[in-house]
């Protein structure tokens, strides 16, 4: 590589780093506290939650319609009502809730969040609206083995990553191994298949599971904890004092009137409704919606991925050094970072500057990612076209553009078709990562069905079959076109 | 018309790395002339021919095409000049993703912006000239080597070039197909086409060429009328080369 090209690549990477840094800076910049005013002006209170944590928040399927319900939702509704605004509910992974409010994706995060000292450093909290207490779920068959928390010494304990339970299990249970997972549904499944011995979980959640699943039992944690470690509070972006104060007034009322008891009771009713019909057919609309979004994202990302790929590949063959350098930097950077990080960066990072909806963010990230891989495939394809072809085109006086369009690219695409097909198939599968920012693709829907039905395995199997049907259909389609191209020369 | 100079080469040199492939070559091609370039392999014949339309960029020297020095023009201008020089390659280089007639129509339509009908008409006429009208709508892969090379000649002719460059057009062919290609080339020569032909076909050179240039070691060592050069070569290397070839015949 020539030295100047190297310099350009270095500059390109530097610029990328700078953009990242600026985005981060902006997100940290303190603003005047107009949080309450903004909510009122908008007429909407936007909350984020992770609806896989009954009875705090979970999805129910009633009359074919999916709704997020639970105690937390009722708390949020009360808050919105008191502020005289409409409540808008967004859902995403628990891990991402605090990030979402820090980056202004939502006004508040609610989801059984314990206002620990560590969390208080990055977000503001309301007063505690509910104190649940910590407990453990165990298998019924182990009732005699784990009579109390003392017997858990040396056991393998599961907990949701990013939660208080995770840290507590590590600290308070001697010699334990703590396994973290994203979803409480996964953790329950791990418990039932004896991958873990006990599951650290909030008491109301544990009670909900025990009520719905006779193979599970609850034991008390016996932790002596500060109220900040057992209570649930609502999280806000730092510097939202005006909004926090307003919300605290609602919480005072909730406390005084013991409204959470009422909320928990109605959540319990929903959970009963929920276990009536847990057949997968009953949830076909969930899966259909997931398939629809997965296909939508894949089709859009494939289209723009190829477009970006062609442009990048042509830039690599440009006479302009800076174009070549830019294309190389881009490809190296995208290939060198995980898609998951890119998805989060587009949604949360770029979201600080321009607010892009989750679905669009997901499409952008997957397209940008695919573009880098497609570019390399196309570059290989262009190199695979015999030199005599370009010489013949040149000797006929064809312009560079026409030569690429009519002679080189058609032959290149034929050569790289199998490799491109591979890329498209992995794109369908990898698009599943957008579920972390709450895009309702197949994986996201799968997790909702699991949380909803308390059935851990069957929904996974259904999703697996659906993914296979999609990729297999694509394979057949690609083979059909490959056959056609072979026929043409 | 024999007087008009089409191509003039002055002090042409070409290096690949540290290897001198062409050393100080001079030559003139006049309108209607057929020049055959012969010589042992590695002499630089193909490189010389490829320097004439700047598929290879000369290291130094001039290539004047109708008065314009190709080595000094920009890329855009070069594309314009190239369309007036047809080239036929050893390996045919037909576009495999297009039918025969599409191969012929592409450049006239994209470069000269002639209409589809006109390109089709000219294309079919030229396919008639090389005897392949019935193959117009097949893909090149279904043609024999000889047929492909005849299509390649027709494709170059479709641009109505001032001069045709042939780079060992029969070397990649099975022996029984050499004749049909040479026949087409002879027909072209008879019609007055200006041609520069790098070839090992001495019979063709002897019969068709107006002048034969003998190349070895990057130099043109001898130029002359075919009867002079083949029967009474002056240069020792030429004598040696022609002697070997005649022995083999």
TrEMBL record, chain A:
TM ranges: 295-318, 339-360, 456-478
One GO-annotated biological process of the protein: amino acid transport
Gene Ontology CC entries for this record: ATP-binding cassette (ABC) transporter complex
Signal sequence residues: 1-25
Membrane topology: Multi-pass membrane protein
Listed GO MF terms: transmembrane transporter activity
Keywords: Amino-acid transport, Cell membrane, Membrane, Signal, Transmembrane, Transmembrane helix, Transport
UniProt keyword Transmembrane helix, yes or no: yes
Gene3D superfamilies in UniProt: MetI-like, Periplasmic binding protein-like II
Location in or out of the cell: Cell membrane
Main location group: membrane
UniProt record similarity statement: Belongs to the binding-protein-dependent transport system permease family. HisMQ subfamily.
Record-given protein name: Polar amino acid ABC transporter inner membrane subunit
TrEMBL record, chain B:
Matching PANTHER family: AMINO ACID IMPORT ATP-BINDING PROTEIN, GLUTAMATE_ASPARTATE IMPORT ATP-BINDING PROTEIN GLTL
Subcellular location: Cell membrane
Domain of life, source organism: Bacteria
Database matches in Pfam families: ABC_tran
The species this protein was found in: Lentilactobacillus kisonensis DSM 19906 = JCM 15041
Domain ABC transporter: 7-242
Membrane topology term: Peripheral membrane protein
SMART domains, alphabetized: AAA (SM00382)
Family to which the UniProt record says this protein belongs: Belongs to the ABC transporter superfamily.
Primary residence: membrane
Gene Ontology MF annotations: ABC-type amino acid transporter activity; ATP binding; ATP hydrolysis activity
Protein name as annotated: Glutamine ABC transporter, ATP-binding protein GlnQ
Gene Ontology annotations for the cellular component aspect, listed alphabetically: plasma membrane
Keyword Transmembrane: no
UniProt keywords, alphabetically: Amino-acid transport, ATP-binding, Cell membrane, Membrane, Nucleotide-binding, Transport
């Amino acid at each position: 590589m020539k030295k100047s090209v190297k310099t350009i690549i270095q500059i390109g990477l530097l610029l990328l780093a700078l953009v990242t840094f600026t985005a981060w800076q902006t997100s940290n910049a303190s603003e005047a506290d107009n949080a309450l005013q903004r909510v009122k002006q908008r007429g909407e209170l936007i909350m984020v939650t992770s609806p896989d944590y009954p009875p705090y928040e979970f999805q129910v399927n009633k009359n074919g319609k999916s709704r997020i319900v639970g105690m937390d939702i009722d708390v949020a509704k009360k808050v919105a009502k008191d502020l005289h605004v409409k409540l808008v509910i967004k859902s995403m992974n628990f891990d991402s809730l605090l990030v979402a409010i820090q980056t202004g994706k939502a006004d508040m995060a609610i989801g059984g969040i314990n206002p620990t000292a560590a969390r208080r450093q990055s977000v503001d909290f309301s007063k505690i609206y509910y104190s649940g207490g910590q407990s453990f779920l165990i298998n019924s068959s182990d009732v005699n083995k784990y009579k109390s928390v003392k017997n858990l010494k040396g056991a393998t304990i599961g907990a949701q990553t990013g939660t208080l339970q995770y840290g507590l299990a590590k600290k308070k249970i001697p010699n334990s191994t703590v396994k973290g997972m994203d979803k409480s549904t996964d953790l329950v499944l791990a418990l039932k298949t004896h991958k873990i011995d006990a599951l650290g979980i909030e008491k109301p959640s544990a009670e909900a599971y025990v009520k719905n699943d006779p193979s599970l039992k609850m034991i008390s944690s016996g932790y002596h904890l500060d109220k900040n470690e057992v209570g649930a509070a609502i999280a806000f972006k730092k510097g939202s004092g005006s909004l926090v104060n307003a919300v605290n007034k609602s919480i005072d009322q909730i406390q005084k009137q013991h409204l959470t008891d009422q909320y928990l009771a109605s959540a319990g009713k929903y959970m009963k409704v929920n276990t009536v019909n847990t057949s997968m057919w009953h949830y076909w609309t969930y899966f259909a919606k997931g398939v629809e979004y997965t296909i939508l994202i894949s089709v859009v990302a494939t289209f723009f991925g190829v477009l970006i790929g062609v442009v990048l590949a042509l830039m690599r063959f440009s006479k302009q050094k800076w174009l070549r350098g830019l294309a190389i930097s881009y490809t190296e950077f995208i290939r060198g970072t995980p898609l998951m990080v890119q998805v989060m960066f587009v949604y949360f990072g770029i979201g600080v500057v321009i607010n892009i909806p989750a679905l669009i963010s997901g499409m952008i990230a997957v397209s940008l990612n695919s573009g880098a891989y497609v570019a390399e495939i196309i570059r290989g394809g262009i190199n695979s076209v015999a030199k005599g072809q370009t010489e013949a085109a040149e000797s006929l006086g064809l312009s560079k553009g026409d030569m690429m369009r009519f002679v080189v690219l058609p032959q290149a695409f034929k050569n790289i078709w199998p490799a491109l097909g591979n890329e498209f198939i992995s794109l369908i599968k990898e698009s599943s990562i957008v579920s972390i920012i709450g895009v309702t693709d197949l994986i996201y829907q799968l997790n909702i069905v699991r949380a909803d039905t308390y059935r851990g395995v069957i929904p996974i199997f259904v999703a697996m079959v659906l993914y296979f049907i999609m990729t297999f259909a694509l394979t057949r389609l690609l083979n059909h076109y490959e056959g056609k191209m072979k026929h043409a020369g | 018309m024999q007087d008009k100079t089409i191509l003039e080469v002055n002090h042409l040199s070409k290096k690949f790395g540290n290897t001198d492939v062409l050393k100080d070559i001079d030559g003139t091609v006049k309108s209607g002339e057929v020049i055959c370039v012969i010589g042992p392999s590695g002499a630089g014949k193909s490189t010389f021919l490829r320097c004439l339309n700047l598929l290879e960029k000369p290291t130094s020297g001039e290539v004047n095409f109708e008065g314009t020095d190709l080595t000094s023009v920009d890329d855009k201008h070069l594309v314009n000049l190239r369309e007036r020089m047809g080239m036929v390659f050893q390996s045919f280089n037909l576009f495999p993703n297009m039918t025969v007639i599409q191969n012929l129509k592409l450049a006239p339509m994209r470069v000269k912006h002639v209409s589809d009908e006109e390109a089709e008409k000219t294309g079919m006429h030229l396919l008639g000239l090389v005897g392949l009208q019935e193959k117009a709508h097949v893909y090149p892969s279904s043609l024999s080597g000889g047929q492909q090379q005849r299509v390649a000649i027709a494709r170059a002719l479709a641009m109505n070039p001032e001069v045709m460059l042939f780079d060992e057009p029969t070397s990649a062919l099975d022996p029984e197909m050499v004749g049909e290609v040479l026949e087409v080339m002879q027909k072209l020569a008879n019609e007055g086409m200006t041609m520069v032909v790098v070839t090992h076909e001495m019979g063709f050179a002897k019969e068709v060429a107006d002048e034969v240039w003998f190349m070895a070691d990057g130099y043109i060592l001898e130029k002359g009328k075919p009867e002079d050069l083949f029967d009474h070569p002056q240069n020792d290397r030429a004598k040696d080369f022609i002697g070997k070839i005649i022995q083999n015949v």
